[in-house]
Specification:
The chain has 28 helices and 29 strands. It is of the alpha/beta class. Strands 6-5-14-16 form a four-stranded antiparallel β-sheet. A hairpin with a 4-residue loop joins strand 10 and strand 11. The two termini are 69 Å apart. 42% of the residues are buried. The mean pLDDT is 91.
Amino acid sequence: MSDAAPLSSQYSAAAIEAPLYADWQARGLFAPSAAADARPFVIVIPPPNVTDVLHMGHGLNNTVQDVLVRFERMRGRAALWVPGTDHAGIATQNVVEKLLAAEGKTRFDLGRAAFVERVWAHVHLKGDTILQQLKAIGCSCDWSRTRFTLDPAMSRAVREVFVRLWEEGLIYRGYRVIHWCPRCHTALSDEEAEHSDVEGALYYIRYPFADADGHVTVATTRPETMLGDVAVAVSPDDEARRSLVGRHVILPIAELEIPIIADEHVEAGFGTGFVKITPAHDADDFEVGRRHDLATPIVMTPDARMADAALDGKPGGRVPAPLFGLDRFEARKAIVAMLKEKGLLEKVESRLHAVRHCYRCDTVVEPRLSDQWFVTMEPLAAPALEAYRKGEVRFIPERRGDEFEQWLTGIRDWNISRQLWWGHRIPVWYCDGCGFQGAFREDPAACPACGAALRQDEDVLDTWFSSWLWPFSTLGWPDATPDLARYYPTDVLVTAPEIIFFWVARMIMAGIHFVGRVPFHTVYLHGTVRDTHHVKMSKSLGNGIDPIEVVNRYGADALRFAVTNGLGVGTDIILDPTDLDTSFASGRNFANKLWNVGRLLLSALGDAPLPALADVPAARLTLADRWIVSRLARAARETTEHLERFRLNDAVGTPYHFLWDDFADWYLEEIKPRLRSEAAEGDAARAVAAHVFDRVLRLLHPAMPFITEALYRRLPGRGDASIMVAPWPGADAGRDDPEAERDFAFVQALVDGVREVRAEYGVKPGTELPVRVSRLAARQRGAIEAAREMIQRLAKVGRLEAVEGDAATPGRIGSHALLPEGAELFVELGDAIDVGKECARLAAELARLDGQLAAVRGKLANGTFRSRAPAEVVARETEKEQQWSAKRDAIAAKLAALGCA
């Protein structure tokens, strides 16, 4: 793309964005500055899943990161944005398993090694897609540092961390109840088993006494698990029921005797007072079972079908033949029917209750007793909690820090093993000959104890086990690399609040434990992208928006403008997936406005170098010049402050309004006659306009990088310089001039006042009106004189007089208006409108309003109406009366001003 080519009459994002991005890359502008005095600013990307395609959550998150990186790069920081992707164990394995299913195969048909090869092939085929899409929205990552969580270097870091934790005694194998996904056939951590409210039922079931008539009643939402019950518990503080401790009841359907026990897990007075204890299918019950040395029978298969695990896949035992092999939810229906038939179902209540679902496939998670690997978290959490309380890391918004603190305070051990084939295989080997077990940094050749062959653990690590190392593993850890020394710790983490526990908290723990410092000083948790019904956007719900479609239709800058302009701290983004224009046209329209301003200005500036603003003599600056320079200084200062405080909506809104409202609507209109003048005032106007436009482009660049670059390169004297590395506007942006701002604001009010009168009375656009202004302070008179030509031109004013006393012209018909600080405006209308016709129109309107007011006032005066009508109806009628009264007063004032009889 030739930067010297004339600007096209219409802005085309498609024509400039891809060529500009390619040029940025070719020139190495995304790499951090190598200058020794450049202080680093570092962000590591939340790595998207390697086979993902871009969705609006990615679009928002990565736009925010890019805005911050571009801002700090322009401030002279050595800005580094580290990109990369996550191998996403469950998600990626699921994708490939679905592809195999379409071929009529399963992973077991291929075997582990061949299946992993198949996944790698899929990753190599699809893995670059999302990174290319990030480029399409303008992300200025240092792509030479792209990382993948299964790269050899990353795998080495994972091994190192696992073995260190093993050597510290913080990794252990435990037989415990974990969250199990029957669809993915793997364990899940607490954070991966997400709660969602489900309409269900609470079933009250009678357990008959074994030695006498009568029964106890237990309540459960999961009757299918009752086949695994081994006891019924009561509270030791329950005086009415603790006498039953030691007796036995009959477990319905299984027809087994189970004891009644006392345990502090049961809350006295809660529910029926009796709680069924199922140690293999409930985490709390498992702890009760350990305290009382109870059995732990498993009554479901890994795919959540009913079977007594003790019978190796045969019917019988605790699971009678009619229930054997049934899916858990079908079994629930069958068990409820059997209980009802036996007269043991006391009642059923509808109940909304929280049910855990797999975070990847949304299958209802099943608590299941299983052998898994765990990390002891309390020793890791304590230093992270201390660092937060000492202010070493902060959260924006602040309330998220409270959530972080609460989670760390009650942290549970982390289940890190997954029953998958894709991922970091657990580096533990076993010797079946001598019983040796150990963790290794490198694959061992033989058992170090007896020399026999070893076998590796079959499980892989939780995906987040590699992700929690991301801020330092991407910089070369465990080696003491130059990157690690220069760029760790990083500065800001930008992510979604949903993964504050999955990822953010664990990264803080890992950074402190393995590197000795928190990995970042600020965690900015932005809002969620939602539709107009405030539902989180999701491909599965059909309410998502494809960011690439938005880029193709409106341009990347329009996308970026839309998501940042709506991003207040702690608020969600609302977009309409059914009407993209509603969501993104504002960004496109602003880009068009910016382009048109550039065309107008650049055509007048020419190619010759212009004097710097500082070189323009102060005497040559008009009131408008001084005003716009002062407004620029304010805009630059406020934009900087907004970005530093992560108020991105204000950081975009401030230069937006400055460009549109101040520069385009007022200043360019004021200087049009001067722009093409060969006189000295023309040079001054061009110098000021070029300076202001240059600086506002810089302020807008972080949010709208493409169009600002295209226009910046066409400013006189820029050559092939890039706005990406242009200094951020600071003290050089402009000079504060409160007097100029105050005086020009008065001029604006005067022009607006005349325009309002013209619109109100329907004055034809070309008609010039006489105007008188009175009760003026000396500086206001000076402002009128300084801007007389502009006022007359913009407001279509003929004679403009500043007078003492009353502003009204004696004997002339016109309209009054108040101006700031008590000044008065009088606009003569007698020769500009047909007074008689206007009087007749206003009189008719007044009569119509009087009729409406009489009706509504009569209704409101009616006591029966007020006592019987709904409150909102009375309020609506009262509001009508107030609005119509105000409108009537305004029309009466107009009639008086026009001298209507």
